[in-house]
Each structure stands twice: as structure tokens, then as C-alpha cells.
Amino acid sequence: MKADFHLHTDFSGDSDTPMTDMVQHAIYLGLNTICFTEHFDQDFPPRFGNFSLDICSYYERVNTLRSAYGSHIRILLGVELGMQSHLADYYETYVSRFPFDFVIASQHLVDRVDPYYPEYWQTRSSREGIEEYFTELLENLKKMKSYDTLGHLDYIVRYAPDAHSEYSYEAYASCIDPILTWLIEQDKCLEVNSAGLKYGLGHPNPQESVLKRYRELGGEKITIGSDGHCPGHIAYAFPDLMQRLSSLGFRYYFTFEQRKPICRKLEE
């Protein structure tokens, strides 16, 4: 897999890495395509951080790097939208205004709280917190239109107490199946995010059992991303990830340019 379609730099509120550093390291790794997907979480609670995006400066910076490094690597413009129930129409207008190649829809908040913080878990058991996350995710997906892939479906597992023992596809099948079915019906992609391996979960996000179920339901369209916030995270564990995907029967993944899907073999 020579393309990483989930990368963040100092244009995102949770990274301080210059974009040039990411490009240079991606070239060093031998990637042929990268897509920056800077965070944009409109109306994000200020106490949890600032995930606004200076889109004009971002677009200008990507174009500058395309001119400087375009003969070595393809650099694409993407965005990661933080879903909330009241933002679907706003995001549809936003995406239409700028020449994005690729759009990730992600769930970072549940009832206006980020599960990254212990505050979320103070009044919820692991099961209650995870179920509430999946319920809100599906509700938001059904309102969203302008996106290409669902980012890190089980993001919440990175931060849930006792997640290693509590979480599995089988334990939450009744919550997960409707999400997978919706993506397939809407002809959207499911992201396979290698950050779960980076965070020591032993699995990508989503887990292999979820990906297996996705295949059983007829899902084939996946995108691949490291969720990298620094050079050392780019294409994290991609060789391992490719083996896991191959063992599950996946032979292809998708990249995007000008919002149009491109089917690529796993080894490409």
C-alpha cells in the first residue's frame, strides 16, 4: 500500500508538525500518494480544544508543496469533518465551496463530550459509553451527504476503560451492523485506520472482526489511513495491515481525486 489517506499537520489542532516534514518523510518511505485530511470540527466545545481550519492557508500550502514535490509524490487535499447532528447542512455547503479530493466523516463527540477525556466515562460504564457512541454515529451518518469514507468507526475503543476485554464485534453486533449496512447501501467507503496498532490495541480501527462482518454483508470499499500526526506515524504498520486485510479477503482499496474513487490493488 503506497498511499496514506489520513494525515494531519500543524493545520490541525492536535499536531505541530510542519507539512513539509510529512511530505519529505512520505517520499523517503516510498509512498506515491498522500492526502492531508486536516481536522475541521465546526462548533467543537472550546474546553476540549480548537479544531477550526484555516482553509485558505491550508489550500495555498498544499499547492506550494505540489509545486515543490510534485515530481516525487502526489499530494492531495482532504478534510476530516467532525460530525454533529446539527452540522450536516453546514458541512454540505462547506465541502462544495472548496476543491477537496477526499472527505472523511468522523465521530469525535458524543453528547458534546469527547470520549478522549475521562469526563465522558465518569457517568458511563464502558458498555454504555460505547453503545451511546455507536448510536449517535449512525444518527449523524444518516444526516451526512458529502463524505467519502467513515473514519475510524470504533474510535472510542482507543479510550474506553477496559476496552481490551470489553469490546468485540460480537458484543456490539446490534450496534455495528446497522452502520456497516448503511455505508454499503449509500455506496460509501469504510476506513481502515492503522492508529489502533500504533496505540497498542493490537488491532486497526475497526477491528478485524468488524471488517470480516463488513465483507459478509457485501462491503468491499475501504480506504487506508494511518491517522498520522507526525512523520513517524506515516503509513504506520502498513505491511502488517496489508497482511491482515489480505487474510480477510480484501484485494483492493480506494483512493480519491477530485472526490472520484480510484480502485487500487493492496500492493499498489
Low-confidence stretches: none
User: Strand fraction band?
Assistant: 15-25%
Mean pLDDT: 96
Q: Judging from the principal axes of the Cα atoms, what is the shape?
A: globular
Largest sheet: 7 strands, parallel
Distance between the termini: 5 Å
Helix content: 25-40%
Radius of gyration: 17 Å
Give the secondary structure arrangement, pairings included.
Blueprint: E1 3-7, H1 19-29, E2 33-40, H2 55-69, E3 74-82, H3 88-97, E4 102-106, H4 126-141, E5 149-150, H5 163-166, H6 173-185, E6 189-193, H7 195-198, H8 208-216, E7 222-225, H9 238-247, E8 252-257, E9 260-265
Parallel strand pairs: 1-2, 2-3, 3-4, 4-5, 5-6, 6-7
Antiparallel strand pairs: 8-9
Summarize the structure.
The protein has 268 residues and is an alpha/beta fold. The chain has 9 helices and 9 strands. Helix 1 runs parallel beside helix 2 (55-69) and helix 4 runs parallel beside helix 6 (173-185).
Features of the shown structure:
alpha/beta; seven-stranded parallel β-sheet; 9 helices; globular; two-stranded antiparallel ribbon; 19% strand; 268 residues
Architecture overview:
- By secondary structure, the protein is an alpha/beta fold.
- 34% of the residues lie in helices and 19% in strands.
- The chain has helices at residues 19-29, 55-69, 88-97, 126-141, 163-166, 173-185, 195-198, 208-216, 238-247, and strands spanning 3-7, 33-40, 74-82, 102-106, 149-150, 189-193, 222-225, 252-257, 260-265.
- It has a seven-stranded parallel sheet with strand order 1-2-3-4-5-6-7. It has a two-stranded antiparallel ribbon with strand order 8-9.
- The mean pLDDT is 96.
